[in-house]
Design goal:
Elements: E1 34-43, E2 46-56, E3 61-65, H1 72-79, E4 87-92, H2 101-107, E5 108-111, H3 123-133, H4 138-151, H5 167-179, E6 185-189, H6 197-212, E7 217-221, H7 225-231, E8 234-239, E9 242-247, H8 249-256, E10 260-265, H9 272-279, E11 284-290, E12 293-298, H10 301-313, E13 320-323, H11 328-339
Parallel strand pairs: 3-7, 3-8, 5-6, 6-7
Antiparallel strand pairs: 1-2, 1-4, 8-9, 10-12, 10-13, 11-12
Helix pairs in contact: 3-4, 4-5, 8-11
Residues 43, 45, 48, 66, 68-74 line the site of adenosine-5'-triphosphate.
Region (Disordered): 1-30
Main location: membrane
Protein name: ATP-binding cassette domain-containing protein
């Protein structure tokens, strides 16, 4: 879906501050699968991650979003103990990845942007090599490898060297490798980039089922916002190493915009008379013409029913009235617009954009 331009209503406070985080994050008494406090990592080029405070709860899919260079991959590497922090702490499944990196990686699955497969080995050998490192017993490993190769449509390429495999085939193999030991926590960095539409759909469904049916926790880094919107319970937006927004898309949308937008389909664009009728209804925040009727924002969903009734009573034919709640994509683009997500070069150096929600 195309991003709707941000809607500004009087009375909203984009500076927000702490926001309610319902759903999976509301599980009182359940320790988070991931907790970071002031987690920081610098490189000679600058701060890649700046005092990150984040919690991810078991069974939750968190979309970790942000433009190129925002610090997403650095976060994943810190949480797996592949990188050491310069400051702050992280707890992953109750362990400190900076101290117990190996133990953390035994219980997590990581799909990195750069799949890191051994080109000289076949698909099966690549998976079996990882199974050995993970200490899986050979018969169980063989069964699991066969099952995953089949599940990812790689059965017919199982015994062919990975060299020459397409981007999509490599990605599927890397995903199979991340799932080999049935990890509790998955870090997926761009899991669908390079996949064709059918493979993308399969991978998105698989990620969804890992969380919803198998209770796995997933941290998903992606630039595909539709995919993030379909899968994520919560989103966290990084920009230049700093967490700029986090929460459920619906909660963040409620902080940014008042009301519920809806599409009201008529036989023609709403004219001045129709718009006048709609705007006079209590609870209508906005009514603008569209090519097939009107966009109407209402304070509550039930106001929309009143809009339909008023129009019908006035002899105007209404073909449909459909609430179109703000999506993760809408929220992301609104945050991006408010922060000005240009690259450091474009922004002329170190200018700090204003905080939106944190
Ligand atoms: N090993 C490294 N050495 C030096 N700088 C690094 C290293 N890894 C990351 N950086 C820098 O840290 C910043 C954050 O990079 P990171 O890869 O975490 O971003 P990202 O959000 O994953 O970006 P992308 O969407 O492009 O994958 C960037 O400025 C990057 O150049």
């Amino acid at each position: 879906m195309a991003a709707r331009p941000p809607v500004h209503h009087s009375g909203t406070d984009p500076g927000g501050g702490a926001h309610p985080e319902g759903g999976a994050a509301d599980r009182s008494g359940v320790p988070p699968a991931i907790r970071t406090e002031q987690l920081t990592r610098r490189f000679p080029s600058g701060v890649a991650l700046d005092a990150l405070d984040l919690e991810v709860y078991p069974g939750e899919v968190l979309a970790l979003l942000g433009p190129n260079g925002a610090g997403k991959t650095t976060t994943i590497r810190l949480l797996n103990g592949v990188l050491s922090p310069d400051g702050g702490t992280a707890s992953v499944l109750g362990l400190d990845p900076a101290v117990d990196g190996h133990a953390v990686r035994q219980r997590t699955g990581v799909l990195t942007e750069n799949a890191g497969l051994d080109d000289r080995l076949t698909a099966r050998e690549n998976l079996e090599a990882v199974a050995r490192v993970r200490g899986m017993r050979p018969p169980a490993a063989r069964r699991r490898v066969d099952e995953l190769l089949d599940r990812f449509g790689m059965g017919d390429r199982a015994d062919v060297a990975v060299q020459g495999a397409s981007t999509g085939q490599r990605k599927r193999l890397a995903l199979a490798r991340a799932l080999l030991h049935d990890p509790e926590l998955l870090f997926l960095d761009e899991p669908t980039s390079g996949l064709d539409p059918a493979a993308t759909r399969d991978v998105v469904e698989l990620i969804g089922s890992l969380a919803s049916e198998h209770g796995r926790t997933v941290v998903l880094c992606t630039h595909f916002l539709g995919e993030a919107g379909r899968l994520a319970d919560r989103m966290a937006v990084l920009h230049r190493g700093r967490l700029r927004a986090s929460g459920r898309p619906a909660d963040l949308a409620a902080e940014m915009w008042q009301g519920v937008p809806a599409r009201v389909e008529l036989s023609a664009p709403a004219d001045a008379r129709v718009l006048g009728l709609i705007r006079r209804i209590d609870g209508v925040l906005l009514a603008d013409p569209t090519p097939d009727g009107a966009r109407v924002d209402t304070l509550h969903r039930d106001v929309l029913a009143r809009v339909v009734r008023t129009l019908v009573e006035a002899g105007i034919e209404v073909y449909a009235a459909t609430p179109t709640p703000y999506t993760l994509e809408d929220v992301y683009f609104a945050i991006e617009e408010r922060l000005g997500f240009e690259t450091p070069e474009e922004s002329g150096g170190d200018r700090e954009p204003a905080e939106v929600v944190s």
